[in-house]
Amino acid sequence: MKPFLFLGTRAEDDAADDEYAAVLRGTGLDEARLARVRLERDELGPVDLDAWSGFILGGGPFNVSDPIVQKSVEQLRAEADLARLAGQVVAADAPFLGACYGIGVLGSTGGGVVDRTYGEPIGAVEVTLTDEGRADPLLAALPDAFDVFLGHKEAVRELPAGAVRLASSTTCPVQAFRIGDNVYATQFHPELDVESLALRIQTYRDHGYFPPEQAQGLIDMARRAEVSEPVKILAAFADRYAR
């Protein structure tokens, strides 16, 4: 079987390794079947789409809507690599699933607009599938409405041309969308469980997502939440596109 490729952008080793481990668990893949590139550290280089079953992009502190003067060399390099890959996968309709930062990367293609209009604080939020979402094969195992973990500064305000909205919430109109038949993005984190979210809250407590003194309260909130459905998206992606 051709492997999948996981792309990360987290500079903090604990959070980066935990995210990769969570995606491994969610997809049911092992490290031999899910290769990994850390884009905040390494160049992606040329990508042969035919060498991979598909691509998964994780989240992280980069935002496409950050003022360019505030972007580090590493962020600019990662953005260029991802823009090139996004162009390839959209043109070829190759299997791709981007979470959080992935919705910024894909959402800014094809005339889409990503900005700070619909940012959401860290928390558990109810997401509702659209009619197109209920009919989508990647989301078929999900109920019409389910809770997710998320926290983001930017979001899609206008979808790219031809994109189909798959899910929404009361505070963010685009929680998931699809381009073509095989290119997906979610605003929420399908890989996150309570312990992984607690780790990220501690890791990013000084990154402007929330006042640092609220960290423990957010962790307590996460422990009270019941978030069980989103991880099914990862399993469905791996099952559908393994080749």
TrEMBL record:
Name the UniProt record assigns to this protein: Glutamine amidotransferase
Lineage: Bacteria, Bacillati, Actinomycetota, Actinomycetes, Propionibacteriales
Keyword Nuclease applies: no
Keywords of this entry: Glutamine amidotransferase
Tree of life domain: Bacteria
Location of the Glutamine amidotransferase domain: 51-193
Kinase among keywords: no
Pfam family of the protein (one): GATase
